[in-house]
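Notes from the 1:1 (GR / supervisor)

We went over the backlog. Supervisor wanted to see one worked example end to end before approving the batch request, so GR pasted a single chain during the call. The sequence is below; no edits were made to it. Supervisor asked that the structure be written out right there so they could see what the output format looks like.
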Amino acid sequence: MIAPNYLPTGASNETFTLNLGPQHPATHGVLRAKLEMDGEYIRKCEIVPGYIHRMHEKMGENRTWVQYLPNTSRMDYLAAMAYTHAYVGVVERALKIEVPERAEYIRVITSELNRISSHLVGWGAFVMDLGGFTPILYAFDDREKILDLLEAVTGARLTYCYYRFGGLCNDVDQAFVDGTKAFVKHMRPRMKFYKNLVTDNIILRKRLEGIGPISAEMCRKYGACGPVLRGSGVAYDVRKAEPYSIYNRFDFDIPHYPEGDSMARYLVRMDEIEQSLRIIEQAIEKLPEGPIMAAKVPKVFRLPVGDYCYATEAGRGRFLVRVTSDGKDNPYRVRLRTPCFCNLSLFEEACEGMLLADALALMGSLDLVIPDIDR
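Structure output shown during the call:
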């Protein structure tokens, strides 16, 4: 691993405080990082979240199981499908609802399309943080194709509420199937174009290689997951480690790199787009006919008394829903374990001694969505 520019040993005793954020352009959302600076070097960092805290967990206690469903897509709004999937999954597990095969396949297809669109935004915004404006225009161009497909079946372009307890609210038609196949065909050569344009660019590599090293031990210490953990050499993915839905039926790899630097995290996400295309291709080919809703779904949901958990692999890592039921119409307690909060937690330690410009590259490589932290 290449050593980054760390604080020189003969550091000055004169420091000043710099507020990074809470305005949007600096920190991908309303997040404040209070930095103690020695010239251009960071001596100490204090993360100050909470500027847009919306009490999602408390809201879960004041709504019925069905009413709370739209809340799930308002956390990580870029990868909303996996969040809704976890919530419907925990209710289905508690009530032992058998989801039809066709609905499970469509859930996988839409979740993976949503993962690609999320990674495209993360990729474009990350490169823009480093001073490259053009890539985000290409990223949003490709993302629009996904949003058009998902809008046709969900009625929304960002905060989806498509999954239902026991299945889906709408079936997909042949136009969606054909459009998805066309997107996969379009995206494969596009990835080679991205590699030539950005990934192999010497300026990008100089900004990312060896910058912001995060060890696997640091990831375990803070509970970091997703591409951040896989960029530190740990091949952990909920879709393989804790298989849910029908992911165990598909052939795909878990991209991971041992370097642990910002470039490794960048490469993981680019490779994951390729793997999502593989999954979508397999799911589309095997998409069965049949119903999209379970035969016996209660009209009023009351979960048996107890604790229930369900985890999914969201765009930024492991998302876990834990609910406690006392047998009433609404949850007694909702606990949401979101990936961005844990991934951000390591930033304070990881950025110590770094140049400010390199710390911004490190923060960009974490691919944060602030409403996922301030939930």
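Supervisor's comment: The chain is about 45% helix and 15% strand.
Batch request approved.
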